[in-house]
Amino acid sequence: MELFGEDEEEFESDEEESEDCLEHILTYAGYDESQIEDVRNKIREYRELPDMLSTDDEAYRIRKQLTPVFMMYIIRYLCAQCRKRGR
Q1: How far apart are CA 43 and CA 79, in angstroms?
Q2: Which residues contact 22 (CB under 8 A, 6 or more apart)?
Q3: pTM above 0.85?
Q4: In this structure, are strands 2-3 and 6-7 parallel, antiparallel, or unpaired?
Q5: Which residues contact 62 (CB under 8 A, 6 or more apart)?
Q6: With b meaning 16 or more CB within 10 Å and e meaning fewer, what string describes 16-26?
Q7: Tens digits of per-residue pLDDT, 35-73?
Q8: Element (H, E) at 7
């Protein structure tokens, strides 16, 4: 099956690499292994939704749980950049 110009095997391979990146990002943000696994499960749950852009309660709940995860990473990244620049 082709998905966005990629066959399914390439997509699964990219997904595995993405999860490694996800672990790297979450480790940088201060998450431990169990928290990283929780985030992975939430992302899987979100990807399995029939319509990820839906405004229904379930999609909203999952997005609401994932937003603070990425906000924490952004905040830590920006703080690290400021420290590097001596601000």
Answers
A1: 26
A2: 36, 39, 40, 43
A3: no
A4: antiparallel
A5: 42, 45, 46, 49
A6: eeeeeebbebb
A7: 999 999 999 999 999 999 999 999 999 999 999 988 988
A8: strand 6-7
**CA–CA gap between residue 42 and residue 37 (Å, rounded):** 9
Rounded to whole angstroms, what are the CA distances from 87 to 29, 73, 82?
A: 20, 19, 5
Q: Could you give the 3-state DSSP secondary structure of residue 53?
A: coil
Q: Is residue 73 within 8 Å of 21, Cβ to Cβ?
A: no
Residue type, 75: I
